[in-house]
Amino acid sequence: MILCPLSRQEHQRKIALPVHEKVTRTHRMTQSRLTKEVKDTAVSRTPQQENPSRRIYMLKDLHIDKGSMKEYITKKRELFLMEYSLAVKRGEIQLLEQKAIEEERKLIRAEKFLEENTILFEDFLKENDKNSVEAINIDIAKYEDMLNEYKKYEEFLLMLSQPERSKSTSSGDAQAMSDGKHTEKIKKTSVPSDRRSGGSRVIRELSSSRETSSRNKSSRQSNKTPALETDSSDGEKEPELFFTDPQELLNVMAELEEQTLSLIQNTRDTEESLEDFKQTAELTRKKIESESKQLKEQTDVMMDTIQRETERTSQLEQRCQLFGFGKNKPEDQDNTLELLSGKVEEVFRCCVGETAANLSILQMLTTIEGKLVELLENAEMIPRERMSIAERAQEKERRIRLRDDKIRLQMMHQEERQRKAMERSNKR
C-alpha cells in the first residue's frame, strides 16, 4: 500500500509517540466516528433540542446497542492497559532513581575513601621522611663517636711515643709548639722510674684524655657544623707515627697490661679482705647479741631468785614470830618441836631419802634447803617452752584435784542431808 506524504508523516508521528499516547486502529476509528457524530449533532442542534425536558425525553428514548457496550469495554480495557503501563513505567523510573541515588552514595563513599587514603599516604611519606632523617642523624652521631674514638687512639699513641721523636715534631709552627709542650709533659710522665709509678701516670693521662673526649662529645650537639669542618681539616693532615718498630708498641702495651693485672689483683685482694672483715664483724655482733641476751636472762633469773628468797625470809620471820618462845609453856613448846621434827623428817624422807646417820632438825633443814636450791637451779635451766608445758600440766592436775575434792564434798553433804532426812523420818 502506497501512502501519501501527509499520511506518511502522520504515521511517523504516531510511531514517535510515547507508549501511553499510542492507541489501536479500532480506537482511532471509534474516536473519529464519535468526533464526526459530535460535529453533526452540534450542526443539527436546534433551540428545541437545547430544552432540558427535550433532552431528558431523548435520553429516555435512546437505546444502547451491543456495539457501543463492546466499544466501552474495549475503551476500559485500553484505559486499564494504559494505566498499567504507566504504573510499570513509574515503577521502573523509581527503581532507576533509587539506583541513581545509591550510585551517588557509592561515589561519595569512594571519594571519601580516596581522600582518607591520600591523607594516610601523606602521613606515611612524612613518617618515612622523619625516620630517614633520624637514621641519618644516628649514622652521623655514630661516625662522630668513631671519630672521637680514633682521636683518643691517636692521643694514646702520641702519649706512648718516644720523647726524642716527640721533640722533633715540636719544632713546627706556634700552635705546634704549644701542643709540643703538652705532649712533652705527657712523655716525661710516660718514662717510668718503676712499673707501678709509670702505669699510674699513664692511667691518669688516659683518664684526662677521656674527660676531654667526653667534654668534646657534650659540646658536639651545640656546634655540629664547625666540628665537622675541623674534623675535615684534621683529616686532611697526614698522621705521623713515632714508632719505628711495632714491637716497641707491643712491649709498652704488655707492660701496661701487667700493671693493670697487678692493680686488678690488688683490688680483688682488698675486696676479699673487706668481705672477710664484714663476715667477722657480723659474727662478732651476733655473738655479742647472744651473750647479752643470755646475761639478761641470767639477770632476770637472779632477780626472781632474790625476790623468792626475800619472800621466803619474810615468811620464816612470820613463822618465828608465831612460835613466841617466851610466851608459850615449855610443854607446849616441846610438843610443837616434836611435831615440827616429825614433819621435817617426813619431808626429808620424801625429798632426800633414808639416811643411816641420825641427823638433827637443823641438818635436815639444811639438806632440804640445798636440795631445793638444786632443784630450783635445774628448773631454771629447763627451757621456757617445756616449763610452760609442765606448768600447764600441773595447773590442769590441780584443777582436776580441786574438782574431785569439790565433788567429794558435795557427795558428803548430800549423804549428810540424806542421813538427817532419814533420822527425821524415823523420829516421826
Automatic annotation (TrEMBL):
GO cellular component: cytoskeleton
PANTHER family assigned: CILIA AND FLAGELLA ASSOCIATED PROTEIN 100, COILED-COIL DOMAIN-CONTAINING PROTEIN 42 LIKE-2-LIKE-RELATED
Protein name, UniProt field: Coiled-coil domain-containing protein 37-like
InterPro entries registered for this protein in UniProt: CFAP_domain-containing, DUF4200
Alphabetical UniProt keywords: Coiled coil
Stretches with biased composition (Basic and acidic residues): 179-214
Biased composition (Low complexity): 215-225
Domain DUF4200: residue ranges: 72-136
Start and end residues of each stretch annotated as Disordered: 26-50, 164-239
Organism of derivation: Triplophysa rosa
Coiled-coil portions: none
Pfam family membership, one: DUF4200
Lineage top rank: taxon: Eukaryota
